[in-house]
């Protein structure tokens, strides 16, 4: 996307939903866009396949400028961009098989090829036993699996996910995210998703854009963006991960320093804290801590209180930093 804006004009005035957004998604990656309600995420993702026409700016897909194509050419390109939705958008009077076959019917495929492709897709999303059911007979997670199978029927290069797990409970969300990740890894499918949930970004995304009031305020690899957030909104989302903020004030000893440590990758499991203080007179109290994963990378955060002489404390912090640990002294 290059300098995309989306302005809605209505009787009540105009709304600048997307403001000058430029971003590039690489083939094969899972790219997340996170923001609070009203940030402009839906408008942005709908501009990607021109479900909404940008008011200005360009959308390019595999080198072709979608925004300059005629309707017929655009429709052909759109077949290479699948989409799934928060409320699934299934045909309620059609069976699971018929829902999945719908794009193949539109593409004029023979009944035999349709049936073979639907069988493959049912297996891919784990719904072999449910092909003849109607959407009303399925759980939310199963409905989204049908949505995914339908979106993949025409073998798109990109899958757009519009809050695909927001209507699901946490356990079902995890199973749908695992399915998206395995499809990405198995088929090399590029996935672009919008969400307001950090769990979605943390568990499957490679890169992330943070949106606020129509703008992308921060962008980059997920670990970089959330371990060193620069913008206020990014910090709010990062705090959801760390759980180190808020609550009662922490106890402080006179002359001590509060230090927040970030561990990333294999160092998460190394005894670096022990190494940093073992030969000094510094005492170390662990006040809070978490160890988790961002996609496949382990990371940890610890809030520690270091007590001792100022020079010993500084020595311990320098030792931590020389081991590659990100040590942030808190005010
Ligand atoms: N069709 C429309 N007509 C007029 N205004 C709209 C339209 N669609 C969205 N908006 C407005 O554009 C702004 C961005 O909305 P959008 O739905 O893109 O945000 P969002 O981040 O996806 O929020 P949510 O998660 O609540 O859907 C909001 O102020 C919204 O009211």
TrEMBL record:
A single GO CC term for this protein reads: plasma membrane
State any GO BP term from the record: amino acid transport
List the molecular function annotations (GO) for this entry: ATP binding; ATP hydrolysis activity
Judging by the UniProt lineage, the source's domain of life is Bacteria
Q: Gene3D superfamilies this protein is in? A: 3.30.70.260, P-loop containing nucleotide triphosphate hydrolases
Q: Where is the ABC transporter domain?
A: 2-238
Q: Which InterPro entries match?
A: AAA+_ATPase, ABC_transporter-like_ATP-bd, ABC_transporter-like_CS, ACT-like_dom_sf, MetN_ABC, MetN_ABC_transporter-like, NIL_domain, P-loop_NTPase
Give the keywords, sorted: Amino-acid transport, ATP-binding, Cell membrane, Membrane, Nucleotide-binding, Translocase, Transport
Question: Can you tell me which family this protein belongs to?
Answer: Belongs to the ABC transporter superfamily.
Identification of the protein by name: Methionine ABC transporter ATP-binding protein
């Amino acid at each position: 996307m290059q300098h995309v804006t989306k302005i809605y004009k209505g009787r009540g005035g105009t709304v600048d939903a997307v403001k000058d957004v430029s971003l590039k998604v690489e083939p094969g990656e899972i790219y997340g866009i996170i923001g609070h309600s009203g940030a402009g995420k839906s408008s942005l993702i709908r501009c990607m396949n021109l479900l909404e026409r940008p008011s200005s700016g360009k959308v390019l897909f595999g080198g072709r400028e979608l925004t300059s194509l005629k309707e017929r050419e655009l429709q052909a390109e759109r077949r290479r961009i699948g989409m799934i939705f928060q409320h699934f958008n299934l045909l309620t009077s059609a069976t699971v098989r018929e829902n999945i076959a719908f794009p193949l019917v539109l593409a004029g495929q023979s009944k035999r090829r349709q049936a073979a492709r639907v069988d493959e897709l049912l297996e891919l999303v784990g719904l072999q036993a449910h092909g003849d059911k109607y959407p009303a007979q399925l759980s939310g997670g199963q409905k989204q699996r049908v949505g995914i199978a339908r979106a993949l029927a025409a073998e798109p290069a990109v899958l757009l996910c519009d809050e695909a797990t927001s209507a699901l409970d946490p356990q079902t969300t995890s199973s749908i995210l695992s399915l998206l990740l395995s499809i990405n890894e198995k088929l090399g499918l590029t996935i672009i998703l919008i969400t307001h949930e950090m769990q979605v970004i943390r568990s499957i995304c490679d890169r992330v854009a943070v949106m606020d009031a129509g703008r992308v305020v921060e962008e980059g690899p997920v670990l970089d963006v959330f371990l060193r957030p620069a913008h206020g909104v990014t910090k709010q989302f990062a705090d959801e991960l760390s759980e180190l903020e808020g609550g009662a004030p922490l106890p402080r000893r006179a002359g001590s320093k509060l230090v927040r440590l970030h561990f990333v990758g294999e160092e998460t499991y190394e005894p670096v804290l022990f190494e940093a203080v073992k030969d000094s007179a510094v005492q170390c109290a662990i006040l809070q801590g978490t160890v988790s994963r961002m996609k496949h990378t382990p990371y940890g955060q610890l809030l520690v209180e270091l007590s001792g002489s100022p020079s010993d404390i500084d020595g311990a912090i320098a030792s931590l930093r020389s081991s590659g640990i990100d040590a942030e002294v808190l005010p």
